[in-house]
């Protein structure tokens, strides 16, 4: 009974999305520029903004300055032997390119993910370039204030030289949800893969889930009572 209720509530309350960037095709070791609305059908816009958050902490506010209305996706297979977690692609900021020796050229930009509806949690993984120096990367949950103003709600930090799960995953969650997500690089370019997010449920969805749970419980109680009555009559006869 408890498992059935949990399954129903979990399915109804936790609509989720996963973007692995593998729908884009193009040549290896170059990035294909995508418009910010490329994944709008999945409820998220992705754009490149100028770096504005290094050193900022939870509670701070900042103004996001758009650099490009889009981002890059590519299969950078020979950049320090970098590979995507889900082959072949990972995403980068708009201005990350491959130089003649095929090393990613750092641009001090950030990826900003803006969700159609508030998100309860989100995660992504960094690329698996090896070897590389251990540089700090941060995943930052934001509250949209209007006029390109944002407040930092939560921060998760990691090192970008991790090459396997779970060490290369960044995950952030906020009670009540958040509207935007920022992937921040500090000293070098970094690719990301497998953006995974869970939406905050709408009140109507919660109500429907609870009604469904009550219906299951009621049916189980009625069925159990009927079986008990039948057994009692059988013993009496």
Question: Can you describe what's shown?
Answer:
By secondary structure, the chain is of the alpha+beta class. The protein folds into 2 domains: 15-201, Jelly Rolls; 202-237. Helices cover 19% and strands 42% of the residues. The chain is built from 2 helices and 14 strands. Strands 1, 3, 4, 5, 10, 11, 12, 13 and 14 form a 9-stranded antiparallel β-sheet that branches. Strand 8 and strand 9 form a beta hairpin. Helix 1 (2-13) runs antiparallel to helix 2. The longest helix is centred in the last third of the chain and has 34 residues, at 203-236. The model is unreliable at 2-13, 99-106 and 204-211 (pLDDT under 50).
Q: Name the beta content range.
A: 35-45%
Rg from alpha-carbon coordinates: 23 Å
How many structurally independent domains? 2
The CATH first-level class of the largest domain comes to Mainly Beta
The CATH topology of the largest domain comes to Jelly Rolls
Categorize the overall geometry: globular
> Mean pLDDT across all residues, rounded?
79
Strand tally is: 14
Gap between N and C termini, in Å?
Answer: 32 Å
The unreliable regions are: 2-13, 99-106, 204-211
Structural class: alpha+beta
> Number of helical segments?
2
The main sheet comes to: 9 strands, antiparallel
- State the helical fraction: 10-25%
N-to-C order of helices and strands: HEEEEEEEEEEEEEEH
Q: How does CATH name the architecture of the largest domain?
A: Sandwich
């Amino acid at each position: 009974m408890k498992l059935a209720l949990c399954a129903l509530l979990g399915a109804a309350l936790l609509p989720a999305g996963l973007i692995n960037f593998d729908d884009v095709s193009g040549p290896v070791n170059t990035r294909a520029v995508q418009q910010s609305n490329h994944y709008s059908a999945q409820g998220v816009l992705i754009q490149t903004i100028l770096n504005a958050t290094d050193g900022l902490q939870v509670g701070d506010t900042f103004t996001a300055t758009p650099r490009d209305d889009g981002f890059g996706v590519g299969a950078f297979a020979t950049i320090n032997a970098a590979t995507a977690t889900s082959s072949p692609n990972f995403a980068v900021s708009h201005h990350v390119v491959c130089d003649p020796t095929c090393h990613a050229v750092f641009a001090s930009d950030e990826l900003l993910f803006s969700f159609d509806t508030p998100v309860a949690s989100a995660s992504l993984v960094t690329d698996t370039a090896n070897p590389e120096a251990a540089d700090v990367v941060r995943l930052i949950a934001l509250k949209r204030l209007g006029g390109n103003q944002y407040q930092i709600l939560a921060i998760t930090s990691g090192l970008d030289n991790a090459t396997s799960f779970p060490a290369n995953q960044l995950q952030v969650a906020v009670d009540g949800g958040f509207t935007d997500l920022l992937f921040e690089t500090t000293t070098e370019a970094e690719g990301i893969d497998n953006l995974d997010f869970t939406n905050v449920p709408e009140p109507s969805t919660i109500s429907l889930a609870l009604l469904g749970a009550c219906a299951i419980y009621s049916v189980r109680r009625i069925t159990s009572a009927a079986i008990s009555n039948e057994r009692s009559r059988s013993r009496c006869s």
